[in-house]
Design brief:
Layout lengths: L6 H29 L5 H13 L3 H20 L1 H24 L10 H21 L7 H11 L4 H14 L1 H4 L2 H25 L2 E8 L3 H9 L6 E6 L6 E10 H14 L4 E7 L12
Antiparallel strand pairs: 1-3, 1-4, 2-3
Helix pairs in contact: 1-4, 1-5, 2-3, 2-7, 3-4, 3-6, 5-9, 6-7, 7-9, 10-11
């Protein structure tokens, strides 16, 4: 990981990587393995091959992850490799430990619809957290990140393209119902992951029209510790000179600024837009 990062950021990254990994581990062991759900990925492929060749799924998972991780190190860089290595080791060891201390051979419930929801939602959120941190859970996620890097695909679409063949194999190895659940789960996983990534990165873009920009800018600079852009404008009807303040904030900061403007400059006109593609200092790519 980047040695230039402050210790607080390193601890935060470690906690988030661990939490995301645990979501993937628990969903895989409790819901995917016992139901033979195959939503793609190395875990899905290991389920299919385990049934076809009578080899432990955890062993197959380890071997295939190791091969793809080496490819990821060579192509995607050391920072990505360090984070992904940690997640891969934690996931592999976690599944092996669960195999020893809590073996599970049948579904937890008699409701496959409920189980497929958990099997989809938990790893989708976990993977979204990892992708947002320039990491992955290894396996076919590495292939998806390669596609994202060298093509115009969004990460959710790239994962779908990689995983669809593995998911379709469930129809050949398991029964038709399991195949349908797996295919439905893959579609749902793609949608949930795209939505989760977008919401994690969601920021608020303010366009503020005012005759008194100074207190607003002072609040942005000194309290929210952000910068802003100001340019002059003229009202089309009144021809009064006004200032337009442009600023992008995290959601928690946006709430504070909106409240401040409402109290201090109630005549200001605000337009607030959602955006998940803010790239620059203090945001994605420059943190």
């Amino acid at each position: 990981m980047d040695n230039a990062k402050p210790i607080g950021k390193k601890i935060y990254d470690f906690i988030m990587l661990t939490a995301a990994s645990l979501l993937i581990i628990l969903s895989t062991w409790l819901f995917k393995y016992p139901n033979n759900f195959t939503f793609g990925g190395i875990t899905g492929l290991s389920i299919v091959l385990s049934r076809a060749f009578d080899v432990p799924a955890s062993t197959l998972n380890l071997v295939m992850n190791a091969v793809l991780l080496i490819i990821g190190v060579l192509v995607l860089g050391k920072v990505f490799a360090g984070k992904t290595l940690y997640v891969t080791i934690l996931s592999t060891v976690g599944l092996s430990v669960l195999d020893k201390i809590y073996p599970i051979t049948e579904p937890l419930t008699n409701e496959p619809v409920i189980e497929v929801l958990f099997a989809v939602a938990l790893p989708a959120v976990g993977s979204a957290i990892l992708f947002n941190m320039d990491a992955s859970s290894g396996g076919t996620d590495i292939v998806a990140m390669l596609l994202k890097k060298y093509t115009t695909m969004e990460i959710g679409t790239a994962i779908f393209a990689v995983d669809i063949i593995i998911t379709l194999s469930a129809f050949l190895v398991f029964d038709f119902q399991t195949g349908l659940f797996s295919l439905t789960g893959l579609f749902a996983k793609t949608l949930i992951m795209d939505g989760a990534i977008e919401n994690i990165n969601l920021c608020k873009y303010f366009t503020i029209i005012t005759t008194n920009p100074k207190p607003i800018c002072d609040y942005i600079h000194h309290t929210l510790h952000r910068s802003a852009t100001i340019y002059k404008a003229e009202g089309a009807y009144s021809h009064t000179e006004r200032s337009i303040v442009l600023v992008v904030l995290k959601r928690s900061q946006a709430v504070l600024l909106r409240r401040y403007i409402k109290d201090v400059e109630p005549t200001a006109f605000m337009m607030i837009t959602n955006s998940s593609e803010i790239i620059g200092k203090g945001f994605r790519g420059f943190n």
